[in-house]
Amino acid sequence: MRMYDIIKKKRDGGELTTEEIKYFIGGVTDGSIPDYQTSALCMAIYFRGMTVRETCDLTFAVRDSGDRLDFSDIDGIRVDKHSTGGVGDKTSLVVAPIVASFGIKVAKMSGRGLGHTGGTVDKLEAIEGFKTTLSDEDFIKQVNDIGFAIVGQSKQFAPADKKLYALRDVTATVDSMPLIAASIMGKKLAADDDCIVLDVKTGSGSFMKSVEDSKALARLMVDIGKNAGKKTVALITNMDRPLGYAIGNSLEVIEAVETLNGHGPKDFTEVCLTLAAYMLSLAGKGSVENCKKLAEQAIADGSALETFKRMVKAQGGDVKLIENTENFKKAKYAYAVKSTVSGYICKVDTEAYGLASLALGAGRNTIEDVIDYSAGIMLRRKTGDYIKAGDELATLYANDKTKFTAAEKLLLSATLLQDEKPQDEPLVYCTVE
Ligand code: URA
After folding, report:
1. Does 207 contact ligand 1 (Cβ within 6 A)?
2. Other Cβ atoms within 10 Å of 301 Cβ, number
3. 89-141 per-position pLDDT tens digit
């Protein structure tokens, strides 16, 4: 087999065979295929697309390129949730303990933030002492004892994806539907879950800017999950605005704890309850409607918060921070961003909001950057709210005052005002089952 022929076939609109796809991913993994040929094939896939069969083959080859987890020692049904990435998206911190409080197991591998999107592992590391690496034995024991554990990806998961993503990132081939689906699901399927709920974000803060494209990506990922023998559902959720009011690591943990205490922002709480309801329902706890009631109950009776605290303690985190979030270390400086005009906020560029948080030190541009956990943004107004000239749009937090100027500029230019109140947009557009 020759890589040249595979590239030519896809360039001319052909359908690759399973063997050709395995040969390609094998060569990416062992380094025998040069970067220029890998990039050329990614570009051909970008323009020509792939059939569902080809995308499944690509996903399974990516999954099989590295370690796979064996969860057979975990008792009970295992459910995972995966978000395609957004701004202010701290849902895992709320959803996992809700689900685990009903005896359903959540053995979660999470990612770090990169660019404008945050990552669950970084958020958890904002809790002093919290360990995001556990041995296989400790991980499985904790999931059996407490119902959930969240760790980073320490193993060699889907190494082919790491190489492919790095090349896609510099060759303008990230936003290809089959490549995104194979990348996300290749990693997800390396874990050993029974059910997967996908949170496919749509709008200005996500990879997919339109609901139609998000639905198509969701359909593809659900088909891949089903082909792999997993019960899979996708929810298309709104990322045309940040989720909740907090953006930045410790600020988001505090907001998640407030939500577990029953005092979370309406939009964030609603998305968490819906995701938890689908996870519980897939795990056999009844209809989605009833499971949503169960999820509400787990917040109201404190069992979800208690489960979260047990997880934090088990992973070495300081539980006093969760018991009283005032104990979180604060940034040295705070700065109020004030609106220069009056009107209803009708539209925001959510990606720019994420970039503003990054500019304050809350994220990383490259994988080596060090995160400032206390940096970030607390929004005071969101889409649909009226704001008067001189009123506070957001409070910025940083340990370096010079970072405020760039972040303020980004926020103000990303916030569009108009005279009329805009129509409410759905938080959850639809589900793909
Ligand atoms: N997230 C991933 O893991 N991969 C992609 O290609 C896009 C988003």
Report:
1. yes
2. 12
3. 999 999 999 999 999 999 999 888 777 888 899 999 999 999 999 999 999 99
